[in-house]
Design brief:
This protein folds into 2 domains: 382 residues, no CATH class; 45 residues. The longest helix is centred in the last third of the chain and has 22 residues. It is globular and about 85 Å long. Strands 6-5-4-2-7-11-12-14 form an 8-stranded mixed β-sheet. The relative contact order is 0.15. By secondary structure, the protein is α+β, with helices and mostly antiparallel strands.
């Protein structure tokens, strides 16, 4: 029988920093097509940006260049705004731009910070806010790199049923809607990481979970990180260190109770996830240890005793491994992306309908027109900055950090991505973050979901089968990293 239990760990250098990034009250806030307000009216909880710098334990020249990951309380940024933010992030010189990755928590209650909204109510505040955000991100990159120190990352998995499938077929109206599907698949894995540094104790924790932060919807007028705020509060009150949230593959996943205006529901959802994360964190052993059978003790029964001991040389070597892998995966564009001129004509038509509905006092018709305008505006944004050709050069980034693999994905992926990879590599902790530096390709549904009229298909720029291609490329990358 097995007499030694080893626990996956990463021996690295790590540094952490956090700052407040809450926009000013009154900034353009309307994230939902169904919303009737334009500007925020207050703050539910502050928005934050948390930086986690990680580098190999051994400082050996170019190979020790840190990567800086940031958990940012926004939904996402469009391509132009994203490029400007990354350019600003690299101004400190603490990390190369290629090694700075912003993981958006994806709250839908922070406001839509697109420069194309600057003429709308509250939109005049967006340019200055984005400039300040870039300055803050640059400072966080520098602070986290400056605080690098020897650290241990430990991994555990818990369970939480906050998240549920959100592709529901409404038989009465004969259409798919984006809402709770009690019968659909979803991954309830809560992957947690504790990052500690000797006598200093816990530097940070990380919670990796797949669930759209769409508790708060069109009836909410407050700036909010959604459930992520209460999640962090619960974990940080126990751990005494910043909690870094990383959004998993949640393209078809959302909270069981969502699309409300009540912030108490968002807090309840966050606490549910927070306590699940704490349960997993509490089960972690002391860092840099393994569990060894120590022998029998004669008592009323003969007891088998176990004790912790320092990890062995072989595991220490594995835990100190550091390998970065980057590749480009061509993903074919869909054939019906649409024509910008035709879309602009549709936009003009819906603008006219909105004006007519407002003049006639037809509130529901005006709401529908505004929602359709929002859809068309986003579609124009989607196709406006795509590289030429018949496929998108999708960046796949992966790191082996000790005995775990970390993955960064652009876009919003169906949940099967993380389920498939974790099933294929059950012995390796896989930290999987989406919306990494934005969402240039928008959604990546699985092949079976095409042709159903789903929102996620209509919002994707990629052809059927793209997610499956990415899963295979990711598997090959992980195989190369772990051997």
């Amino acid at each position: 029988m097995k007499r030694v239990m080893e626990f996956p760990q990463s021996l690295v250098r790590a540094g952490v920093a956090r700052r407040d990034i809450t926009p000013p009250v009154g900034i353009y806030h309307r994230m939902w097509g169904a919303a009737t307000h334009d500007q925020s009216t207050g703050v539910h909880r502050p928005l934050t940006a948390t930086a986690l710098a990680v580098a190999p334990r051994e400082e050996d020249g170019a190979a020790c260049t840190p990567i800086v990951m940031l958990s940012v309380d926004h939904c996402l940024l469009w391509n132009t705004e994203m490029r400007a933010l990354l350019n600003a992030a690299s101004t400190s010189g603490a990390a190369d731009q290629d090694n700075v990755i912003l993981f958006f928590t994806h709250t839908h209650a922070a406001g839509l910070m697109g420069l194309e909204r600057r003429e709308l109510p509250g939109g005049d505040l967006i340019p200055d806010y984005l400039t300040r955000l870039g300055t803050t991100i640059a400072a966080l990159v520098a602070e986290s790199v400056d605080s690098l120190q020897p650290a241990v990352m430990q991994y555990a998995a818990g369970r939480c049923d906050l998240a549920a499938n959100r592709d529901f077929f409404d038989e009465e109206t004969d259409q798919y809607v984006c809402g709770l599907n009690p019968e659909g698949p979803s991954d309830d894995t809560v992957l947690v990481v504790r990052i500690s540094a000797g006598e200093q104790g816990t530097l940070a924790t990380l919670v990796n979970y797949a669930c759209h932060p769409t508790t708060l919807a069109w009836d909410n007028t407050l700036i909010s990180p959604d459930y992520v705020g209460a999640l962090r509060e619960v974990v940080e009150s126990s751990e005494g260190a910043p909690c870094f949230f990383m959004q998993g593959a949640s393209g078809d996943i959302g909270p069981r109770e969502g699309y409300v205006g009540d912030t108490a529901v968002a807090d309840r959802n966050g606490r549910q996830l927070g306590y699940a994360a704490l349960a997993a964190l509490e089960g972690l052993p002391p860092p840099e240890t393994r569990y060894r059978y120590a022998g029998p003790v004669i008592s009323g029964a003969t007891i088998g005793t176990w004790e912790y001991e320092p990890i062995g040389a072989e595991q220490r070597q594995r835990a100190a491994a550091w390998i970065a892998h980057r590749s480009i995966v061509p993903l074919r564009y869909r054939d019906d992306l649409g024509d910008a001129d035709a879309l602009q004509a549709d936009r003009t038509r819906w603008e006219k309908q909105e004006i007519e509905a407002v003049s006639a006092g037809e509130g529901e018709r005006a709401r529908e027109a505004r929602a359709m305008l929002e859809r068309i505006t986003r579609k124009l944004t989607r196709i406006g900055s795509l590289p030429t050709g018949d496929s998108y050069p999708y960046p796949l980034r992966a790191w082996r950090m000790g005995e775990a693999v970390w993955l960064a994905y652009d876009g919003e992926h169906y949940n099967v991505l993380q389920r498939a990879l974790r099933e294929r590599f059950p012995g390796t902790p896989i930290v999987l973050g989406t919306l990494a530096n934005g969402s240039h390709v928008w959604y990546l549904p699985d092949a079976e979901s095409y042709g159903k009229g789903l929102y996620q298909e209509s919002a994707s720029v990629l052809a059927k089968g793209s997610l499956e291609t990415l899963i295979e490329a990711s598997s090959a990358s992980i195989e190369e990293l772990v051997g």
